[in-house]
């Protein structure tokens, strides 16, 4: 079973993504900010991390920088899912090492398809 970590502070997004990915046979982990995500990543090695940019405590960019420093997490695919849709934000996310940058609002079906493409 593939593992996915969803990191977002918006409860409605977290609930809909969790439901959808569980239906698609993923083991789902939830974090509501970057620090909680980093704590989960000490124990779990997900295949994919869906990461919001604007969050309390540690934002998505800083979280990704920490993820990229961890040798154990090298295989993880990272997708930014963010309302920050300016070109400079997208470029920053991709330059930090994200595999994909998806802007909100988004299509859950398309996101699931993109996740499947990344982990094939």
From TrEMBL:
Coiled coil feature spans: none
Keywords per UniProt: DNA-binding, Phosphoprotein, Transcription, Transcription regulation, Two-component regulatory system
Modification type 4-aspartylphosphate: residues: 52
InterPro entries, per the entry: Bact_response_regulator (IPR050595), CheY-like_superfamily (IPR011006), Sig_transdc_resp-reg_receiver (IPR001789)
Response regulatory domain: residues covered: 3-119
GO terms, biological process: phosphorelay signal transduction system
GO molecular function: DNA binding
PANTHER family: RESPONSE REGULATORY DOMAIN-CONTAINING PROTEIN, STRESS RESPONSE REGULATOR PROTEIN 1
Protein name stated in the entry: Response regulator
Organism in which the protein naturally occurs: Flavobacterium sandaracinum
